[in-house]
Sequence to fold (86 residues):
Amino acid sequence: MVYNRFIVALSAVLLLFALPTIAQYGPGANPGGGGADAPPAGGKMDVPEYIKPGFQLLYMSASSTENTDPNKVGSAGMGFTEYTII
Fold:
């Protein structure tokens, strides 16, 4: 059970970190030329030079909700997420 939670959390972190990179360097945005096709599964993907093992990114986010009923309280929160390339 704990192992499954770890895998889900790790997958979510990797997905969230990979989405901006895929959007910038993915299919149709090949900065090195050579066509607009995505690399094959397990193939090399073009990423910035600074994205390498040991790279860390600290990401801050915040959110809030409001309620239409003035007698009910909304909620708010903020936090930090650290991504580390291993």
About this structure: Helices lie at 2-25. Residues 65 and 71 are 14 Å apart (CA to CA). The mean pLDDT is 75.
